[in-house]
Each structure stands twice: as C-alpha cells, then as structure tokens.
Amino acid sequence: MGGLTVAGTTKLQQVKEVTTVTAIAATGTIAYDVLTQAVLYASANATANWTLNIRGSSAASLDSIMSTGEAMTVAHLVTQGTTAYYNSAVTIDGAAITPKWLGGTAPTVGNVSGIDIYTYAILKTGVAAFTVIASQTQAK
Asked: Does a structural domain hold residue 7?
C-alpha cells in the first residue's frame, strides 16, 4: 500500500479527498472501502435502514491497513426522501461495533427531504480493536 509518511510539522494549502457518488440508495449492508474513498455519497433516496461495514477493501481488512495508534475519518452522505431512514448498525471488517455518538445517543430516525451526513472517526486501539466516534448531521 502506497502512501506518504511525514514526520514533524507539515503545512498544507489544500487537501482533496476522493469521493464516490453513487445513485444506489442506502439500504441493507453497505460496504465502505476506505482504500478507494474518504466520502461516500448516496444520491438516491434511502429505501430502508442500513448497516455500514467499514473495511479496507474487498481484499484488505481495515485492521490490516491500520496500525495501533492510527486514526482515520470517513463520511457517508445519504439522501433522504419524504420517508427517512437511518444508519442502524456499524461493523468494521464485518464485526459489530458500537460507536460512541456525539451527544450520547445513537440516531433512531433520519431527516426527511435532505441529506444526512454521518461522520465516523475510527481509532485503532489494538489488534482488530477500534473505537469509533460517530455523528449524524442534517443538510437541507
């Protein structure tokens, strides 16, 4: 896996993140491959609550591409119609994880006629061990 490692202080003027825009509605289990995107945008209206499975790719686990003490942040943007749905479960490499939600409570509803933005800060704390800090915000 390629990448750039910089030790010490770094000054960047601009960072662009790879975004996948898909017309597939959020529903069922959604594979979120961090090796190919930092943002996943579902532009079609969600059709049911969904599970987000965060992984490296179909061939690489998230556990195998991160070291203990590393963190990454990903975003999942979900378009909502007149009936809204929400992210009801999160897994990492297929294993269930309970995120710590900003505000202290996991969402139990989506927000109608807009875009729900889910952000996940993923911290690797050990072998196949992660802490996830999550949030849901609404854009209209």
From this structure: no
